[in-house]
Sequence to fold (151 residues):
Amino acid sequence: MAEAAGPADVAARFPKPPFDLHREAFEPPLSRGMAAYCLLQFALLLALGMGFLALAATASLPRLLGCAAYLAFALWALGALLEGRRWAAWPESVRLLAGVLALLAVAAMDDGRLDVRIAVPLAVAMAAAAPLPWWLRIRDARSPPRRLAAG
Fold:
């Protein structure tokens, strides 16, 4: 009958290099404009998430699933922007335009809870912001990126 290997046997059999505390962390360069844009979008998503939680007890299941899917997609797109992915402006622009459509749809079927006088200007502002990720990416390509100071 074979004996079970102890931790010392496993460590001797599979050696690992010691942990280096000073290795460089994954920190892609980020311009101030893109950082400000992502901060603003995250703050808006945080407010949307709080509204989602406030309405969770009374909203219908399809509306909750749609809002949850939008939040998950939005956070994924924002993360791709922060990672500096080349393709990240596409999903971010799609997210902004999908937000416009969702806002107008909610205003149309919301039984007067969301005033159209608020929803339409908000939707126009979101549609106008859709090219902003592209503009920031083009501008970032022209200027050298700055590293944010580690806080």
About this structure: Residues 58 and 64 are 10 Å apart (CA to CA). The chain has a mean pLDDT of 77.
